[in-house]
Amino acid sequence: MGLVCSNKDQMQKMKNHGSIGSSGRLSAEEYEDEEISKLAISTFQSKAEEIERKKVEVREKVELQLGRAEEETRRLAHIWEELEVLEDPMRKEVAMVRKKIDLANRDLKPLGLNHQKKEKEYKEALEAFNEKNKEKAHLVATLIELLTESERLRMNKLEELCKIIESMSLKP
């Protein structure tokens, strides 16, 4: 914008100076038109140069930022690779442990069912054992009573027989 104003000022000065002269080749209007054309071309060229300079500056800035972005992309890719390397062994170990847990669960299920079955059988066998033990105890008690009663009866019988024998031996 500064260039445009200064060029207009120059054009105005040229108008104020007047024509070159009547004997000159160009009339004042032609001279003025030519100067305006030169000034316009000069202004256009300076603007084109300024645009080109700014274009180069912007291109350099863009290339610099692209370079930084590419460097950051490379850094991020490297960091990503490092993270994957860190995660990979953990993933493998976790997968192995999970697989072992699944195998253990698969093995535990029938063992648990077998344990429950055996525990039920044990309880039933223990119950049957306790019942038979009670029955045996009752039978042993009954046997002792019977033996005691039998012994008592035999003793009574023996005493009777002894009395009979004594009474027979006293009678001659």
From TrEMBL:
Residues 1-27 are annotated as: Disordered. Pfam families: Transcrip_act. This is RAB6-interacting golgin. It comes from Canavalia gladiata (Sword bean). InterPro entries: GORAB.
